[in-house]
Amino acid sequence: MSQPQWWNEVLSLSQSVYLRISSERIITDAVGDTRSLLGRHPEALIGLSPGELKDIRTQLGVAVSECLARREVRPGATWRFEDSAGSYYGLSDGSIVIKLTASLQSNQGILGRLADQLPVMVAYIDREGCFRFNNQAYVDFIGISQEALFGQPVSSVLDAESYAKVWPRFQRAFSGQEVNYEDRISLSDGRTCYFKVNYVPDFLEQDVLGFYAVIQDVTEDRAMIQLLRDIHSSVNRTDISTSEIIDRLLRDALDTLSLQIGLVSRIIDDQYIVKWAASDDGISPGDSFALGDTYCRLMLDTQDVLYTTQASQDARISGHPCYQQFGLEAYIGTPLRLNGEVWGTLNFSSPSPRQAPFTQVEVELVRLIADAVERVITNEAEIEQVRQELDLMADKASRDYLTGLPNRAFLDQHLATLIARQERFSLAVVDIDHFKRVNDTHGHDVGDIAIQWLSSRISECLRDGDIVARTGGEEFVVVMRQASLPAAENVMERVRQYIKAGAVTLQDDSELSITISIGLSEYAQGEAFAELFKRADTALYAAKRAGRDQVCTE
C-alpha cells in the first residue's frame, strides 16, 4: 500500500528520512527526502549495508539502535527511544527504524566545522576499532582524506607494534574509562612521533558506543627539550675542543631540523670561508666561495634569520647563483656577530625540499644555537657565561609557562633519577574540583588566576626537597622524597586544608573558593613510574567519586 500524498509532502517539507534496517543490517526500506540528506534516491538505498553510507549520524544511529535492541528480552516486542541525537524504533519482526532529519545533519555539520578549527587532532572510533570521524587536523597530519579514512580500522594508519600497544588502551575506553597517555607511536608510513592522547568514551546511558580521541603531536616539544639538554651538555664539556663542541651543536640541530648540511662560516670581505661543517655532501672546513654566490648574502642583507623550505618556488631565491650551482631547496641561516660586528654565519640546508614549514620555535632554536656558537668562538674564558645562559634556557624549557612550576618533562626526569637511586618516595596527583565550572562561569582568565594561586599555595605547604609540577590543565603532581605513605598523607591533608581555608582574589576584589581532590601512592621498589601514576590516578578518581575535597590512597 503506497503512502498517502500528504505523508510524502510532510516528509519532504520536514526534510526527514526513515531507514528500516533488518536484523542482518541491510536497509530494506527508505522513505523521505533521502536525496537531500543522504545523496541517494530511496530505491538506491535498498539492499545496502548502513556501513556503505558515509554519514556519521547513520552509523551512530545504527550503533545506538543495536545497543537498545540488545536490551529487549521478549521476542516480538516493540520499543522506541528518542533523544537530542535522533529517534529510534524497534519493530516486532526484529528490524529497526532510524529517523534522520536535516537539523541533525546541520548540527553534525556545525560540530564537524568546529572540530576542523581545532589545532589538535580529533577522531571518533567505534567499537570495532574503525574511524567514524576525523577532523581536518587529523586528515592533514595523516595525509589521507576524510572519505578514505571513514570506516577504516585504526590499524591501517599505525604499524603493527604500535597498534598492539594502543589496542589495550582502546579496550579501557570501551569499558567506560577516560584514558590519558603520552607515548612514542610509529605510523604505517614510517614516521615515528610522540603523541599526547586523551580517549573520551561516548555513552548511551550505560553502554559505550565508541570514543573520541583527542591527539596532540608533542614530538617537536620533546625534540626541543632534548636539544637544549644536548646544547647545555656540549658547551659544558671541558674534555673536548671548541671544534668538537661546535660539531656536536651542528649535528644535533640537523637531526632536529631534518636537514643534511650544517655550516659555520667566516666572512672576510666578499669571501665565504667554511670554518666548521657537518655534512656528507663533500663540503669541508677551509672551502671558500664568493659571498655573493651563497644564500648567506641574502641573509646578511636581511640582518635576521632567512629561511625557505622550497627554494625553487621562492621568488627571492629561485634565480640565485647558489640555487643554480648547488640546488639547495631548504635553507635556514642567521648572522654570527662578535662585539656587534658580523663575524660569519650559521646555516643549515638540504638539497631536498622540507615537507613542513619552519616553525617559530625552530627559528628561535637557530638563534639560540647561533648564540652558543658565538660564545664558544669568542673566547674560551666566556664558556662559563654560556653555561649559565643555556642552563637558564634549559630550565625554561622544563617549566610550565603559566605557573613557573616544573612541567611533565622535568617531572619524568626527576622520577627517573629517584627510581635509579632506589630512593623511597610518594607521589600525589592533585586536581581542582569542578574546574570546568570555574572556566564556564568566570572565564579562562579567572581559571588561569586560580591555577597560579593554587600552585603557590601548594608550594608553601611542602617540605624541603619535595617538588610540585603542573602536568596539564588543572592537574598537579607532588613528589615527596623519603616519605612513607602515612607521612605523605599528612603532608597532602595539610595541603588540602590550606587550599580550602583560602580564597582566590579576583580583579574586582571578589573572592573565589576552590577545593581539591588528591590521589596518593607510595613508590614500590622495581615499579615502573607509569604504574605508580596509574595507582595515584585510581586513588584520585576514588576521591572524586567519594564526594571530592579529600585525600585517597592506593
Describe this entry's structure for a reader.
With 554 residues, the chain is of the alpha+beta class. It has four domains: 5-101, PAS domain (Beta-Lactamase, 2-Layer Sandwich); 111-221, PAS domain (Beta-Lactamase), CATH 3.30.450.20; 237-382, Beta-Lactamase, CATH 3.30.450; 408-553, Alpha-Beta Plaits. Helix 9 runs antiparallel to helix 14 (383-397) and helix 16 crosses helix 17. The protein starts with a helix and ends with a strand.
Tally of DSSP β-strands: 23
CATH C-level category of the largest domain: Alpha Beta
What is the quaternary state of this protein?
A: single chain
The DSSP helix count reads 19
What is the CA-atom radius of gyration, in angstroms?
30 Å
CATH superfamily of the largest domain: GAF domain
Q: Looking across the biggest beta sheet, what order are the strands in?
A: 13-12-11-16-15-14
* Count of domain modules: 4
| CATH architecture term of the largest domain | 2-Layer Sandwich
Mean pLDDT: 83
Head-to-tail CA distance between termini: 66 Å
Strand content: 25-35%
Summarize the main sheet: 6 strands, antiparallel
Helical content, roughly? 40-55%
Q: Could you say which overall geometry the principal axes of the C-alpha atoms support?
A: globular
CATH topology of the largest domain: Beta-Lactamase
Low-confidence stretches: 104-110
Structural class: alpha+beta
Domain GGDEF: 423-554
Catalytic activity: 2 GTP = 3',3'-c-di-GMP + 2 diphosphate
EC number: 2.7.7.65
Cofactor: Mg(2+)
